[in-house]
Amino acid sequence: MDSDQQHAFNGDYTLYEFGKVVSQSERNRYIETLIELSEEMRLPAVVIAEIWDGPRDRKIRLPGGELAYARDPKWTYTTILGIGEGWGRWSAEIEAANEFLQSEGRAPIIVERVLPNDWRDALFGLQRAKDTETLKATACRYFEGVFGYAASDDIAEAGCIGLYGLTAPAIVEKIAVSAQSFSVKKPKKRRKAS
To answer: How far apart are CA 85 and CA 80, in angstroms?
Structure first.
């Protein structure tokens, strides 16, 4: 067996850690775990996260029959603020980790953002349901089919986003290019939560 065959992907995925994150210290711990696993496996550290299309106007039919445009009702101030705050908290941890990694002469964390329809189309197919409740249930079934156990819809969707990142050609190519030059140096010190 040649070395490529020895190291070929065998079709199984291993989930090392997962959970719903509610505090900054938990975000820090997940990023530290990511860095440690990437060093251990001699692979780049990669974060695959959702990004969303901005608000759009939609055509609606008024009671009198004429057409008008209205802002998509899901894009409220609260929604936009929540999305920004949530990703901002993760960005802060990733940025701090990358500063540490750079000071150690190590490769930074790769961050790829994907649209919900892109990962859902790729994993669930183009003829999939479009309503939120059915999509969340589909993610739960998909996650259980891949990993062998049930998870909440938030965790299942996060797992599906990660799986998409492992199969999307453009993302895989970036990871492969980074992996070719990946070298792990013994860290001088560990990054600790502040």
So the answer is: 9
> What ranges do the domains of the chain cover?
22-114, 116-181
Q: What angle do CA 115, 117, 122 make, to 5 degrees?
A: 105
Q: Which residues pair with residue 50 across a beta bridge?
A: 114
Q: For the chain, what is the mean pLDDT?
A: 85
Taking the model in full, what pTM does it have?
Answer: 0.78
Give the model's confidence band at 160: pLDDT under 50 very low, under 70 low, under 90 confident, else very high. Answer: very high
| Residue 169 in tokens | 């050609």
Position with higher pLDDT, 162 vs 69: 162
Task: For residues 140 and 150, give the distance between their C-alpha atoms in angstroms, rounded to a whole number.
Answer: 7
pLDDT above 70 coverage of the chain, percent: 87
C-alpha separations of 21 from 24, 25, 30, 89, 155 in Å: 8, 9, 9, 11, 10
Angle made by CA atoms 26, 54, 57, in degrees to the nearest 5: 145
User: Residue type at 55?
Assistant: P
